[in-house]
Every structure is written in structure tokens, then in C-alpha cells.
Amino acid sequence: MSQRVTFDKLQDIVNREVYSDVEDSALSVDDLFPRQIMRTGYFYADSIEGFFEESPIDEPTGEYLTVSSKEFDEYVQENTVFDSWRHMLRYGVKEWVAREWAEANGYRWSPS
Questions:
Q1: What is the spatial distance between Cα 43 and Cα 79, in angstroms, rounded to a whole number?
Q2: What is the pLDDT of residue 59?
Q3: Are 3 and 67 in contact (CB under 8 A)?
Q4: What angle do CA 28, 29, 32 make, to 5 degrees?
Q5: Crossing angle for the helix pair 85-104 and 7-17, nearest 10 degrees?
């Protein structure tokens, strides 16, 4: 019998993986923004890679989760429906939690 995953357990994972030191994080923006999410109409790019390729970040690395600047927030505002990178990340985390919970409990997930 499979073990059901509770919201509290997922919240612990998010706190450990997303809000901890990015160097140690197992989560990436690819985890938070898969193609299904990028195609919701909230973004003007089809992939998170395309989103960052057009961004003002000179040489993007895997540490996107630490990006924070006024210039980047303006880019997010112009290319998404979100106010800031932080707002966009919160959406990605919320969807990641919902997806993980659904998959762990045998439900089908689709972006909100």
C-alpha cells in the first residue's frame, strides 16, 4: 500500500528545498516551471529557458532562484502576469506542491 503525502510533508519539502541555500536545493526553476505551466497564458515564453534567454541576465546559471533586482522584476512584469520574480516564484512553488501532492496521491494534476 502506498503512503499518502500530506500537505504538511510537502510544505516541509518546499521549506527545505526552495527556501534553503540554493546550492543545496534539489529543486530548480525547471521543476517549478515545466512546459505545462509555461503554456498557461501567464507567460509570454513557451519555456523557462526561453524566458531566461530573453531576460536581462547576462549569463544565466542554475541559480535562478536567487535572482533579485529591480531590472529583473520589470522584465517579469513585462513578460508575465506577475508583479515580480518573487510573485512568479510563489506561483511556481504553489503549482509544484499541488503537482507533487496530486501525483503522490494518484490524482491527475493540471495548472491552475
A1: 6
A2: 55
A3: no
A4: 95
A5: 140
Specify the pLDDT at position 60: 54
Report the amino acid identity of residue 10. Answer: L
What are the two backbone dihedrals, phi and then psi, of residue 54, each rounded to the nearest 5 degrees? -90, -5
Residue labelled with grid coordinates 536581462: 56
Residue ranges in the chain modelled with pLDDT below 70: 1-26, 58-68
Nearest alpha-carbon partner for 82 in 20, 33, 16, 23: 33
Q: What's the rounded Cα separation, in Å, for the pair 46 and 35?
A: 7
Residue 108's DSSP bridge partners are none
The pLDDT of residue 89 is 85
Scanning the structure block, which residue is given the C-alpha cell 542554475?
62
Q: What are phi and psi of 80, to 5 degrees?
A: -150, 180
